[in-house]
From TrEMBL:
Keyword Signal belongs to the record: yes
Organism: Rhipicephalus pulchellus
InterPro entries (alphabetical): SVWC_dom
Signal peptide boundaries: 1-16
Domain of life: Eukaryota
Gene Ontology CC: extracellular region
Phylogenetic classification of the source organism: Eukaryota, Metazoa, Ecdysozoa, Arthropoda, Chelicerata
Domain spans labelled Single: 28-88
Localization (cell): Secreted
Keywords assigned: Secreted, Signal
Designated name of the protein: Putative 8.9 kDa family member
């Protein structure tokens, strides 16, 4: 009985660390990030791209390694965000 209570408390504590995901006003709100329908956000830490599919109630998360041709030709050669951070995190 005591062991079951300890496991339940540990599970509840781990759930409290999961970032929230909400779909509101044609936006995907995840943790402290907000992405509009069809839009994306490229981050450096964590090294991911968030893509909002509001009408499907889906937030796509692309990590590393990045698919081929993922970078934007307008990206700075010194860019630190996804997918450029994949090369740095692999080193």
């Amino acid at each position: 009985m005591f062991m079951a209570l300890v496991l339940l408390l540990a599970f509840q504590r781990s759930l409290s660390k999961i970032p929230s995901l909400r779909f509101e006003g044609r936006r995907c709100n995840y943790d402290n990030y907000s992405v509009s329908e069809g839009g994306y956000l490229r981050l450096a830490d964590p090294c991911v791209r968030l893509v909002c599919r509001y009408y499907h109630k889906v937030l796509l998360v692309n990590g590393c390694p990045a698919p081929p041709n993922s970078s934007d030709p307008d990206d700075s050669p010194y860019a630190m965000y996804w997918p450029h951070c994949c090369n740095r995190s692999a080193a």
